[in-house]
UniProtKB/TrEMBL annotation:
Protein name stated in the entry: PTN23 phosphatase
PANTHER family: PCD6 INTERACTING PROTEIN-RELATED, TYROSINE-PROTEIN PHOSPHATASE NON-RECEPTOR TYPE 23
Chain intervals for the UniProt region annotation (Disordered): 647-677
CDD domains per UniProt: BRO1_HD-PTP_like, V_HD-PTP_like
InterPro entries referenced in this protein's UniProt entry, alphabetically: ALIX_V_dom (IPR025304), BRO1_dom (IPR004328), BRO1_sf (IPR038499)
Coiled coil (residue ranges): 397-427, 503-530
Compartments in which it is found: Cytoplasm; Endosome
Protein source organism: Campylorhamphus procurvoides
A Pfam entry, by short name: ALIX_LYPXL_bnd
Organism taxonomic ancestry: Eukaryota, Metazoa, Chordata, Craniata, Vertebrata
GO cellular component: endosome
GO terms of biological process kind: early endosome to late endosome transport; endocytic recycling; protein transport to vacuole involved in ubiquitin-dependent protein catabolic process via the multivesicular body sorting pathway
Keywords: Coiled coil, Cytoplasm, Endosome
């Protein structure tokens, strides 16, 4: 009801558009078309003849609403006096909207509903609307003092639109429909054709004047004057405002022509060319029919019949889902192929962007080493304690070794004395009753010597280990600057640094390419997941489904283009990375060697710290062992001394006894001296 009695304002346009949209939603769900089950009679009055026209077709209702939408926009466009810039813009928009409504009506609905919806009448309306919209732009360009040539082209396009309208008016079918109106309209349109042709040539003359082509200037102004005179002839009966505009234009063009002709006759003397020898002015169409979209929710509002979804729409939605899935499969196949190549390439390169140079790690002491330094800083006597402990161990070791040596020397001396006695006595075995303690002392001494020998090896190893770690422990306990200075650092030339920077920049490009690819893939997946066109499918004819699918799938074109560009860039990026890696090879080798030394140094220092407790423990164990052994050796030494004394006394007794048993020596007779010759 609101659409039938629509107010003559912008709200009226909005009401018509909403009603048009809801009719579109309705006819897609309920069979109300011509010859269909739910068709009802639709009656409207034809505007020119006044006759009522009835069709049992919901599309006729839509067609009449569209016609009225175009007519209302044209009325609103003509209402404004267009004296302000804003008024010109609003009028221009209304005329373009009107042209859009008539164009949609002409292209999407039958022309047999009524004579005022014939192809000729609708084409007439469209060109009348576009002509008036172009007029608004012409006024705006003159107000803005645009270049003369541009103004001339805009005006020439106004002429072109009105010429098309005039051709439609001259059609016999149009003439019979419009009757007397046809003659008035034709006369007015022809007057506008001549008038705007005059304006176009006026500005072509101005351009010739700017270019100092004074002969051309004369002919253009003369042509403008001729066309204006024709317009004045056709303007008889037009309102006084039109007559006034024509008189003003005559003053301008007449003045321009007289001045130009006089200047050329008396000053420039340039030849005046024939008008047909000059290039014709080509129109510049700056307006267009603004399209009508019956299903635009921003215009139509919520779909009243949204919950009525036919089975055919569900089936079509399923087909569309398959189209989306196919699109995703195609794109993912390309992405996965490129990703596989990229992964294999990066694996072969063995380049990690995070650790490609490791230069930052050389700027500070690693946490594990800082921890050891901190631990030693609260124990400043660490090295001294270790040295003292080892010195104590060495002292006990020396004492034990001296005791065992003395025991061994005593036993060896005793054995030598025993050997000498036997030689003296002719190796007679010793008599029974010799002291038994020496054998036990010798046995125990051998055992202690064996223990000492083994412990001596351990002691030597312990001292070697201490000497190995002592310097490192002193370093760890000293100033941090010394620790940092002890760690190896790479020495890079400016060229090496440049090579590194270039490699890192390209690796960053690789990562950027990966991230962008993943982001685009996620955007595509989310977009496909949210893409539900069931509502549009409901309002679309089955014959238009394929076209709708193609239109809807175009929304993915931009993302696909971005992805294609990303994938295409991979080859160039990898080529650049290969070149950079070749230059990086020598730098990489040097950095790897320094890193190995750095890690080895850190591990050695950490190992020295961790060895400290073990050294202290073993040193204490060594002290305990040698203290015990020292006590035993001291006791054994006393026993050895006592046993050796007893053995010596026993040998003395034995020697004396043997001497008593032997008879005293007999005296020998003196020998006579030898006789001399």
């Amino acid at each position: 009801q609101s659409a039938v009695s629509v107010p003559r304002d912008f709200e009226g346009c909005s009401t018509l558009r909403k009603y048009l949209g809801q009719l579109h939603f309705l006819q897609s769900r309920i069979p109300m078309g011509a010859g269909q089950d739910a068709a009802v009679p639709v009656t409207w009055t034809e505007i020119f003849s006044g006759k009522t026209v009835t069709h049992e077709d919901i599309k006729y209702e839509q067609a009449c609403v569209l016609y009225n939408l175009g007519a209302l926009h044209s009325m609103l466009g003509a209402m404004d006096k267009r004296v302000s810039e804003e008024g010109m813009k609003v009028s221009c928009t209304h005329f373009q909207c009107a042209a859009g409504a008539f164009t949609y009506l002409r292209d999407h609905f039958p022309h047999s509903y009524s004579v005022d919806m014939s192809h000729q009448i609708l084409s007439l309306n469209i060109n009348l609307m576009l002509g008036q919209a172009q007029e608004c732009l012409l006024e705006k360009s003159m107000l803005d003092n645009r270049k003369s040539f541009l103004v001339a082209r805009i005006s020439a396009q106004v002429v072109d639109y009105y010429k098309e309208a005039c051709r439609a008016l001259e059609n016999s079918e149009t003439a019979s429909l419009l009757g007397k109106i046809q003659k008035d309209w034709k006369k007015l349109v022809q007057m506008k054709i001549y008038y705007f042709a005059a304006v176009a040539h006026l500005h072509m003359g101005k351009q010739a004047e700017e270019q100092q082509k004074f002969g051309e200037r004369v002919i253009y102004f003369q042509s403008a004057l001729d066309k204006l005179n024709e317009a004045i002839k056709l303007a008889k009966g037009q309102p006084e405002t039109v007559q006034e505009a024509l008189r003003f234009t005559m003053d301008v063009i007449g003045g321009k022509y007289n001045s130009a002709k006089k200047d050329n006759d008396f000053i420039y003397h340039e030849a005046v060319p024939a008008l047909d020898t000059l290039q014709s002015v080509k129109g510049a169409p700056l307006v267009k029919a603004l399209p009508v979209n019956p299903t635009d929710p921003a215009v139509t509002g919520p779909d009243i019949f949204a919950k009525l979804v036919p089975m055919a729409a569900h089936e079509a939605s399923s087909l569309y889902s398959e189209e989306k899935a196919k699109l995703l499969r195609d794109v993912m196949a390309k992405i996965e192929a490129k990703n596989e190549v990229l992964d294999q390439f990066m694996d072969s390169m063995q380049l990690d962007p995070e650790t490609v140079d490791n230069l930052d790690m050389y700027n500070h002491i690693p946490p594990v080493l800082m921890e050891k330094c901190a631990a030693l800083s609260v124990r400043p006597d660490t090295v001294r304690n270790l040295v003292q402990s080892m010195q104590v161990l060495s002292g006990v070791f020396t004492d034990v070794e001296a005791s065992l040596k003395e025991i061994r020397d005593l036993l060896e001396e005793d054995e030598a004395q025993e050997q000498k006695l036997q030689e003296l006595l002719g190796r007679v075995p010793p008599a029974p009753g010799s002291p038994p303690g020496l054998a036990e002392v010798s046995k125990e001494c051998s055992k202690y010597l064996e223990l000492h020998e083994k412990a001596s090896f351990t002691n030597t190893e312990l001292h070697r280990a201490m000497n190995l770690h002592l310097g490192n422990l002193r370093l760890l306990g000293g100033p941090l600057e010394q620790v940092r200075a002890a760690l190896p650092t790479p020495s890079l030339s400016e060229e090496d640094k440049q090579v590194l920077q270039n490699l890192k920049r390209i690796l960053a490009k690789v990562q950027e390419m990966r991230d962008q690819r993943l982001s685009l893939e996620q955007q595509l997946r989310e977009m496909i997941q949210k893409d539900d066109i069931t509502t549009s499918l409901v309002t679309t004819d089955r014959s238009e489904m394929k076209k709708l699918f193609e239109e809807q799938l175009r929304k993915y074109d931009q993302l696909k283009v971005y992805l294609e560009q990303n994938l295409a860039a991979q080859e160039n990026v990898l080529k650049a990375l290969t070149d950079a890696n070749v230059k990086y090879a020598a730098v990489r080798k040097g950095l790897a060697e320094v890193e190995h030394k750095w890690n080895t140094t850190v591990q050695t220092l950490v190992a020295s710290y961790e060895a400290y407790e073990d050294l202290m423990k073993k040193s204490q164990e060594g002290k305990d062992f040698y203290t015990d052994l020292e006590g035993k050796a001291a006791k054994l030494l006393e026993r050895a001394r006592a046993a050796c004394q007893a053995s010596q006394a026993h040998r003395q007794q034995l020697l004396e006894r043997e001497l008593k048993k032997q008879p005293p020596p007999r005296p020998t007779a003196p020998k006579p001296p030898l006789q001399k010759k």
